[in-house]
Design goal:
Largest sheet: 7 strands, mixed
Oligomer: single chain
Order of helices and strands: EEEEEEEEEEE
């Protein structure tokens, strides 16, 4: 079974960039579709971006389109989230998630469909 560990969070100013990483253990990483979700204080967990197991399909929330870029390196068992032009409203705990995927091009937006989660990494953007 895959285990997930996020890293790369921190405190930045508005307009800065951060890159989050999600390292996965296990030998079946390439069979999992992946996603990033975030949760701000007092708010529900929300979808940020998803990537298919092949890495060829991606799906972004409107709030991050054009600013965030998801990628994965199946050889390194790692997924990345490049976050540019950060805004204070991006402040949240960011979680990576994984789920087995039958088809290589499928992406998943709904957090209930994911069965593996990391512990989260805090991203704080000051104005």
């Amino acid at each position: 079974q895959v285990q997930l560990v996020e890293s790369g969070g921190g405190l930045v100013q508005a307009g800065d960039s951060l890159r989050l990483s999600c390292a996965a253990s296990g030998r079946t990483f390439s069979t999992y579709a992946m996603g990033w979700f975030r949760q701000a204080p007092g708010k529900e967990r929300e979808f940020v971006v998803a990537i298919s197991r092949s890495g060829l399909s991606t799906d972004y929330a409107d709030s991050v389109k054009g600013r965030f870029t998801i990628s994965r390196d199946n050889a390194k068992n790692t997924m990345y989230l490049q976050m540019n032009s950060l805004k204070p409203e991006d402040t949240a705990v960011y979680y990576c998630a994984a789920r087995p995927s039958t088809l290589s091009h499928w992406t998943f937006e709904t957090y209930e469909t994911y069965d593996l989660w990391g512990q989260g990494t805090q991203v704080t953007v000051s104005s």
